[in-house]
Amino acid sequence: MYKKIDSYVLHLIEQSSPEKTAWNIERVRQGKPASWNYIDGCMLTALLEMARITGDNRYSDFVEHFVDSFIGEDGSIRTWEADKQTLDDINEGRVLFPLYEMTGKEKYRKAAEKLHAALETQPRTFEGSWWHKAIYPNQVWLDGIYMAQVFSALYEKHFGQGDYSDVIGQLRIVRSHMFDENKRLYIHGYDASRTAFWADKETGLSKSFWLRAMGWFAIALVDLAEILPQGSEQAEVAALLAEMLEGVAQYADDETGMYWQVVDQGGREGNYLETSGSSMMAYAMLKAARLGILPQEYAAKGQKTFDGIVSKYLKFHDEGIDLGGICLVAGLGPENNRRRDGTYEYYISEPVVSNDAKGVAPMVLAYTEIRRISQA
Q: At a CB cut-off of 8 Å and minimum separation 6, what does 318 contact?
């Protein structure tokens, strides 16, 4: 069955172009035109990993063609609106570094420099964390760590001075506020001003442990652990990752190894085993075991989760293959959208879809880690 995943991913590529992808379900539903966005960025990252592990240039050729349609020779990024100051829009930029190494095209370096410059002016909380978006003042979301910190570390490694102190500093802020010592889980959001309608007035925290938010954080940590040079900073990131994955592992579904949409509420009415966050946890566990951050037993845990996803949600039929069980989107606010209040009832109310890249991309990333194990 694993080999069928190759054909599934290639089928998605064949159905996709820079102007319309088969995996950006959120954008299709909103009727929005093609743009520079984090959802496509996640998928492009996964495709580059497929190219590395399989040696099949169809994956990397697609990524290069896709990105070239957005990046001008001067490094300008078509459709990117820097004045929105959203960390989400930084994420797609992480593919610029491997593309630059592969091709030597200077426009990739120039585009990375523009995104890095945008982060230099991104508003910060009084403690030093980037705001998630300009429309979310003083708010730190776990999602944003993946969206921007991995890019920031890659920039320092490839084009900067190798100074990772800001990355580490922002991780420390997240750990100090957003980790629940009793549950051993991370909360989705933190408002440093404690004024958002969804935030606790004393702690600034949102109300629930949303799986995909923790998934974003987990894959950010494992990718950062790979990027950072050996030393105290890498060790600190590895320790955060180990603590997090040890905490979340206790909430895995016994049968499938998957995780619940609201992590600590397994079996509660309306809750469900969710694909995107489970795939992120599988990838983080498999990769952390490969890097030596976690014991090898976590490779087995990650593989059980992956196999559970494939068994429960990857469906083969005459028309092709579908990956289901993916929460389409979830967030906190803004003020004019009070439905997004961070409660249990809110998280289970969001649409569940098939083939969205927020689920497909991490599933493919986990698959590449399993391929590495088989090739070792």
A: none
Domain count, the chain: 1
Q: Where are any strands of DSSP class E within the chain? A: 139-141, 179-180, 185-186, 189-191, 314-317, 320-323, 326-327, 352-353
Q: What are phi and psi of 137, to 5 degrees?
A: -60, 135
Calculate the alpha carbon distances from 21 to 225, 249, 354, 361 in Å. Answer: 31, 33, 14, 13
DSSP 298-365: HHHHHHHHHHHHHHHHEEEETTEEEE--EE-------TT-TT----HHHHTTS-EESS-HHHHHHHHH
Task: Identify whether the C-beta of residue 256 lies closer than 8 Å to the C-beta of residue 281.
Answer: no
For residue 334, what is the domain's CATH number?
A: 1.50.10.10
Structural domain range at position 107: 2-375
Contact 338, 202 (CB under 8 A): no
What is the four-CA torsion angle of 27, 31, 33, 36, rounded to 10 degrees? -20
Please answer whether residues 332 and 315 qualify as being in contact, where contact means their C-beta atoms are separated by less than 8 angstroms. Answer: no
Q: How far is CA 173 from CA 128, 135, 166, 179, 190, in A?
A: 8, 21, 11, 10, 10
pTM of the complete model = 0.97
- Residue written as tokens 């959120």? 26
Interaxial angle between packed helices 38-54 and 57-68, expressed in degrees from 0 to 180 and rounded to the nearest 10:
150
Q: What are phi and psi of 59, to 5 degrees?
A: -70, -50
Q: What is the pLDDT of residues 276-323, one digit of tens each?
A: 999 999 999 999 999 999 999 999 999 999 999 999 999 988 767 899
The token duo for 302 is 């990650």
Task: Report the DSSP pairing between strands 326-327 and 185-186.
Answer: unpaired
What the block records as the tokens of 329 is 């989107």
286: Cα within 13 Å, side-chain hemisphere: 25
